[in-house]
Design brief:
heterodimer; A: 602 residues; alpha+beta; Immunoglobulin-like; 3 domains; 11-stranded mixed beta sheet; elongated; B: 554 residues; alpha/beta; Chitobiase, domain 2; Collagenase (Catalytic Domain); 5-stranded mixed beta sheet; 50% helix; transmembrane helix (chain B); transmembrane (chain B)
Chain lengths: 602, 554
Amino acid sequence: MRQLFSLLLLSLLSFVCSASSDYHEQLVLRPLPLSALLASFDFRSNITLSAFETHNFRFFPRSLGQILQYANTRELHLRFSLGRWDAESWGARPWDGAREGGTGVELWAWLEAETDDEADHKWLTLTNALSGLFCASLNFIDGTRTTRPVMSFQPEGDHPNSTENMHLLYGVLPHEVVCTENLTPFLKLLPCKGKVGIATLLDGHKLFDASWQSMAIDVRPICPDDGECVLQIELTIDMVLDIERSKRPRDNPIPRPLPSHELMCDTSKPYHADDTCFPADYSANQDWTLSQVFGRNMKGICPLTDPAVPPVCLQVPHSRRVFVSSGVVEKKNADGTSRCFEISPKADFEMIFPRPEKTDGEEGNAAQAEIALADVVKPETPLLYAERSFTGHGQERGGVQTILRNPSPDTEVEFIYMESLPWFMRIYTHTIEAHVGGESKSNGSLIEEIYYRPALDRARGTQLEMRMRIPPAATVFLTYDFEKSILRYTEYPPDANRGFDVAAAVITILNRGEERKAAYTLRTTSLLCSLPTPDFSMPYNVIIFTSTAIALAFGGMFNILVRRFVAADEGPEAGLGKKLSAKLSKVLERFRKKKTAVEEQK
Amino acid sequence: MTSSTIISEPLTANRDLNSNSNASLTPVPGSRKEPPPEKASDIRRRSFIILSFWLIVLFLGLPIWWKTTTIYRANLPLQEMLDWADGKACRPVFPLRIAIEANSLHEQEAHNLLRLTQHALDDLNDFSGHHLRLQLSPPSTEKKQDSSHDAALTIRLVPGESSTSTLDPYAPVLNITYPPNSIPSPTSSSSSLATYVASQLRSTFAEEQAIISYLLSANFIPSEHRPQGLAPEAADSLAKRTTRSLKYAPTYHLTFSLFTSGPLPSSWDIEAAIDEYMKPVLDLLSPIHNFTIDTQVQLYATPGVQNQVLSKEDLSSFINAAEWPLSPSIGGAPTINFVVFVGDQTIMAPPQAPEGSDVEAPTFQSFLIPQWGTVYLVSLPHDVPHVSVETLKQPLLTFTSHLLSLTGAPQSGSLPLRLSTLARIRSADLLLRASSTLGSLARLALALPSIAIPSSVADGVSKTMSHLRLACETLGGSEGLAHARIAEAEAERAFFEKSMVGQLYFPDEHKIAVYLPLLGPVAVPLVIGLLNEIKAWRKRRRERAEKGAQKKAE
């Protein structure tokens, strides 16, 4: 599948190089096992550098172009992601992981600046401007969330003359929740808006209900060997839809139990009976139509798009039958697992993906599973599996464990593992160790190179980059310990007890032949680190407690200093009761006197 | 002492009285004993202790508390700032120098004419803020360049058959022809030529005078500056024009956008069109404003109003702000939008000239949105993929004239004269705006006693005032504009100082909650100790006085 995607990418690249049109868009649909559907939207437009410099924008969005010019940005990558890519069942990531980010928002850019300070200043401008453009909290990418990766990222575009003054800055907001307000400005950047073409399928309700989704914006200069340099903006949206979930009607989204006769049961189980049911696992063969899954029809195609690029492609074996609306031409590609559709500009496009013909309903589960696998393109094994989790307990220390598994039986994998940790996670570098699963001792040869930039409290986070090599068919445990620091009272967010998000680790697998180019990128999930949280009424408690202590000490001392000590029988009457009774009798006596005086007057 | 516990006795309790009354109330004879009289050194020591506690509180505690909780407020010259805002500090006077070029006249004649014309002008002028000073320009031609450089207008007197006047379209020159017999004799006290020249000058500068006097009256109202003859209608139209024009900025971003309701046309020759139709005016404006230009094409843009014929009410909602990417440009400068909308909509002609409306609707194709820009509706056949320079000619000419009114240039007069007037209007405007910002800052500082005023604000204020003073002295020239510009920028910076905007809010309940637990228990023994000591001291004095009186009596 990866080859297929890169083939596709290559063919697209060749299109771009030869294309006369400055814009194209394409949607690739790929059913995945377990009733999932991957939809990759790709929109790409070019502007010549001369037009860019004279501010004449046509397909390139003016709002973004101005920001890039103002912040001297040469290359920009922005990601909005949500959910988790299930590599175990879905296989390798689309675009070889190059168009996705960790959960939340990720931004990295190459800025042209003379000094580091100038670059920081421009970075601030860039994040603030993008924050306004995309309605995201990108302005919270401050010094503590910004790093300057050394090994992990390489420019994608061609920078023929300005490589020396380019500064790479990388910022990540793992806590940011990506939602519809980020999609609307995204659609505004497209030349055809969301009015025609494949972008009409982008519905916020479905997109953000997906199991996994990633919106990416990439701006890079491309200089073909012949012809003028262009600045290319590529907008991609990848999402994995749970078909069953997406098929729920919009006005009735609550899942309800099916009536018993509609349940799909595994009849091969010995306990199968009228009142028991083991769910059958062949939901990959769900039937669906385009409008059911996306909630709307596709309205024509964008007239600006390059006619050489088919607008919709579907990756299923040629044996599957697919029905399309009239006026659409189906073209099967030579590789046997993909087909594309030519759509007339004005017509609506609808596709029906029927359930494949079952040979026999009474067959066993294993056979059905086989059929299920034959009906979707078999997912390709990724180069590396990675998962990361916290270890340890308590509020003081913790540990991070990353399990990296090389599934290939014969090739070793070389990659760069990058962590950008918040400053309040102080890692103990001496505890960094990697050992192959099964062996108890740490293996020094796994980590080849470490780049470590320690955190400064409240100023910058930890940056840890490691070049590692994993032998074939091995599982490596990478662990390190850290200490949780205590924040200041005002530094806690309102929902302090929820925990603090720790950004995903970025794993860049290096291409073995070519140096410096990434072959595959993957990101772990983000982590939720719980820090010791104070009681927030603490300041008042402290004030009252210390005040009481001071008052007690002061009062006692002052009294001892200024009072005279006499024997008990020498002093006045002590005790509250006696004093009170004395006063009372005084008052009574006065009252009596008055009375007698009045009586005497009478 | 073994049987008795030690109790503390309130400091210098007036034990005699107490024990007496106790004795009288509770007759338990023998159970109470008199304590031995206190030593004088003990009494003195106690007084010293209390005194030293109070000294520490007053001379160490209070200053520390004051120092640590006080808010830094830089000294602002508040009265001076308010004077500026009220117009007491500066009397805006625009001395305009008018050069008269009369090469055909004798010097004596020319001087006489000058004197008479000046006299006539002074008679006509009722607005003291706007002075027209005539001077004779030397007849030699090589010096003409210099003199006309700093003069606002040059009058070129040429003998002719009758009295006519024309404005030169390319230079600030008023050409006046006069019949030969109208030259005043050296002795005459009035002349028809002088009156004619004066009235021509006056009508040329009438609009500028009206605008400046309007600005002055709208901002501050010293009555002696107030022109008498500003009619309400004229004031209305001036108000309309002032609200329409943008705030002054040294740089404006011009954004040209092509919006189409469908997929076509998707490209236009805007660069060539701007170069041809708009560049000359932009170059002329360059001493006052800089411009940056960007262009964009937007397809599938649905306007906010779908009607075929747009009425006046529709125009305000025509711009679909939610969907059209017309976000202002990044950077400090304001953006002026020029939108060419390709569609088949037209604007309904207003039944009468609209009065007091924000949206001007003079034509069928375009409308101006105050302080925002212009929309021009173009209807094209549906299959045209490209908009040519010829199609863009009319829209761009409209945009150019609207640009002038958006920048606030007056409507009458030749272009060079309008631009020099614009510079004067702008400097007056900036001066007034900076003054009123100063006034607002002063009022803010007075109204919020708990707001912090950092020293940068004080710096900004002093800079503003020095530049305002300079601007006030050099009004009417290019220097005045530069000073006014700096003053305005500094005033805005001082007013919008970041640390002042985020004012700390400590409610009184909060203060009580913080201070009471600490100060209450500490203050009570201190205060009671002091009161008791004073009481005891007074008692001792009285006793001493009584003793003295007894001795005397004895």
